[in-house]
Design a protein that fits this description.
This protein is of the alpha/beta class and about 325 residues long. The chain has helices at about 30-35, 50, 85-95, 135-140, 155-180, 185-190, 195-200, 200-210, 220-235, 240-250, 260-275, 280-295, 295-300, and strands spanning about 10-15, 40-45, 65, 70-75, 100-105, 115-120, 125-130, 150. β1, α1 (about 30-35) and β2 form a beta-alpha-beta unit.
Length: about 325
């Protein structure tokens, strides 16, 4: 039975970001955003791979070391090597994390860094920022569609919006699977996400509709292929050009309801957004007003208008 809590999303998170003193120097990387802005919205599962394999805090630091095609976890002097126990831990722990709705990593960590981790050539102090933390890589390899991000990157409003858009879409999909996958449910899911997909990647959006037309004999296989493309599309940041095109498509649904001045007001709001004069929230708020006024059910059900809870304030800076 596919398990998911429809009411709460659980995020895995590097334990140091929760304020736990688990870093090599005995300190932490406490994230105010995680502990204050997000605390009421998510349940957290804190993990520190290095503490989990029995290392203390403080401890000798380790780094990624490349030996041809092998990645080692060693101290700078080479006297401490935790490669084998860490690989064993990653294999066993990652297998337990299938129910997570996303993961927040600590940047630059040799175990938890998502990207740009310094990697050294064995026997030298020559490092390049091309590595991925050992635990982070294991998790991303096991669950390639799971939304992951580094908390330091969430300072960027576009990255922040994109991550949580994917988190809530991922959760929505898993809730659908938990109820039982059917052709009807899959078509309804796609219908609700039409404009969000259009805003993020129009090329993939145009491929997904025809794909669903092929699912007559094997819904599960098509659903798997569909969701892979779906998450790939959402991982693309929605450009101002694509957002404008999507807003104009939605505007077309109101052409019979709006009077001349209302049409002009909405057109102006969309173009002001396109020119960078107002945030995305301005035309979105106006469209939501017209949705309520004219009871346009199809548009009201579009996730594009509410991809995540308003309390997260994610579209204020877009």
């Amino acid at each position: 039975m596919y398990k998911v809590n429809p009411q709460r999303i659980q995020l895995g998170i590097s334990a140091c970001l929760m304020g736990q003193e688990v870093r090599f120097d005995g300190g932490h990387k406490r994230s105010t955003y995680v502990l204050h802005e997000l605390k009421d919205m998510f349940d957290y599962l804190p993990i520190c791979p290095e503490m989990a394999i029995g290392l203390g805090a403080p401890r000798k630091s380790v780094r990624l070391v490349r030996d041809q095609d092998t990645i080692l976890l060693q101290s700078a002097d080479g006297q401490l090597d935790i490669t084998t126990p860490m690989n064993h831990y990653c294999d066993s722990k990652v297998a337990e994390l299938s129910e997570l709705g996303g993961y927040l990593f600590c940047a630059k960590s040799p175990t938890c860094g998502m990207e740009r981790v310094t990697e050294y050539k064995i026997g030298t102090n020559n490092g390049t920022k091309t590595g991925v933390g050992v635990f982070a890589r294991a998790l991303m390899d096991a669950y390639p569609l799971m939304p992951v991000e580094e908390t330091s990157r969430l300072n960027d409003s576009h990255i922040r919006d994109n991550f949580f858009t994917r988190v809530y879409a991922y959760h929505d999909w898993r809730c659908m699977l938990a109820k039982g996958l059917t052709k009807h449910e899959l078509l309804q899911f796609h219908s609700r996400y039409k404009y969000l997909l259009m805003a993020h990647n129009q090329s993939i959006y145009r491929e997904l509709g025809p794909l669903l037309a092929t699912m007559e004999n094997d819904v599960e296989a098509v659903a798997k292929q569909y969701f892979s493309g779906f998450m790939q599309a959402l991982k693309c940041h929605a450009t101002r050009k694509n957002q404008t095109s999507t807003l104009q498509h939605i505007q077309g649904y109101f052409k019979k309801q709006l009077n001349t001045s209302q049409k002009a007001e909405l057109s102006d709001a969309i173009m002001q957004y396109r020119q960078g004069l107002v945030p995305l929230l301005v035309p979105i708020t106006l469209i939501n007003h017209y949705v309520r006024e004219f009871s346009t059910e199809y548009i009201a059900n579009q996730v594009y208008l509410h991809p995540h809870p308003q309390v997260l304030k994610l579209r204020y800076g877009l």
